[in-house]
Amino acid sequence: MPTYRELIQSSQIERFDAQVLLLHIVQKNRAWLITHDTDIASDEHTAMFESLAARRRAGEPIAYILGVREFYGRDFTVTPAVLIPRPDTELIVELALARAPHAARVIDLGTGSGCIPITLKLERPDLSVAALDISLDALAVATHNAAALQADIHFMQSDWLNAVVGEEFDLIVSNPPYIEVNDSHLSQGDLRFEPSGALTDGGNGLLHLSCIISQAKHHLVAGAWLLLEHGWDQGAACREILQTAGYTEVQTWRDLGDNDRVSGGVWRGA
Ligand code: GLN
């Protein structure tokens, strides 16, 4: 019978991934493994580990295998219906928190797991937060997360802002699908398992970003920010689209990896 260390060593997956899967099975934290790695694994734990390791060898993302991913210090349920929350996306959350006026009406477009609006609401209970997605399967995951984390969010199915005609907001945020359809990353790693509709616009990567920029003008009060996450090489294009559309204070911010990641501007009114 193998020890925990032997299970990890023979798994043919990355050591860190193997540890994470094992700790999930035994329901322990990392410190436990340091003192117990020469313990004999039970048959049940061994079988469970072998089955999860096989899924990982087939390329399935750790977040989907575990069904959970941490974002901004909280656990979010994730399924293959939603994009896996990325640490990079904490940048748009920080920028939104710094720009949302007291008791602001905030809306997140293409919410996926709901990690952005739920974090905004929990960090700033004064905000009134709505979130939209075109995918009912994604909305089911987001609604579950909001209930589990006790965040009061108004969810609605919508193709970008089409379901909120006539409504105005004090801040609009979005992490839309922005990967160009021919980008080779789509056929590599975790992205192969994520919903393609959450990753790519099926075109040059700027289609949804442009659509949101033009629609948002009709839903922002004067002086309100629009903040958009985008790819590392899309900052200049986003700024140009924002400027052409009439936004002011247009700028781009960099993520922790020092890549352009969020651009935004202020809508001064028509
Ligand atoms: N940041 C993701 C990636 O590059 C893409 C997310 C998105 O398209 N919104 O893997």
Write the layout of secondary structure elements.
Layout (H helix, E strand, L loop, with lengths): L3 H6 L5 H12 L3 H7 L6 H15 L4 H5 L1 E4 L2 E4 L12 H10 L5 E5 L5 H9 L4 E6 L2 H13 L4 E5 L11 E6 L21 H4 L7 H10 L3 E10 L5 H10 L3 E7 L5 E8 L3
Parallel strand pairs: 3-4, 3-6, 4-5, 6-7
Antiparallel strand pairs: 1-2, 7-9, 8-9
Bound molecules: glutamine.
The site of glutamine has 10 residues, from loops.
EC number: 2.1.1.297
GO molecular function: peptide chain release factor N(5)-glutamine methyltransferase activity
Keywords: Methyltransferase, S-adenosyl-L-methionine, Transferase
How would you describe what is shown here?
With about 270 residues, this protein is α/β, with parallel strands linked by helices. The chain has two domains: about 5-60, no CATH class; about 85-265, Rossmann fold (3-Layer(aba) Sandwich). The chain has helices spanning about 5-10, 15-25, 30-35, 45-55, 60-65, 90-100, 115-125, 135-150, 195-200, 205-215, 235-245; strands at about 70, 75, 105-110, 130-135, 155, 170-175, 220-230, 250-255, 260-265. Strands 5-4-3-6-7-9-8 form a seven-stranded mixed beta sheet, sandwiched between helices. It has a two-stranded antiparallel ribbon with strand order 1-2. Helix 2 (about 15-25) packs across helix 4 (about 45-55) and helix 6 (about 90-100) crosses helix 7 (about 115-125). The radius of gyration is 21 Å and the shape is elongated. About 40% of the residues are buried. Keywords: Methyltransferase, S-adenosyl-L-methionine, Transferase. Its EC number is 2.1.1.297. InterPro entries: DNA_methylase_N6_adenine_CS, HemK-like, N5-glutamine_MTase, PrmC_N, RF_methyltr_PrmC, SAM-dependent_MTases_sf, Small_mtfrase_dom.
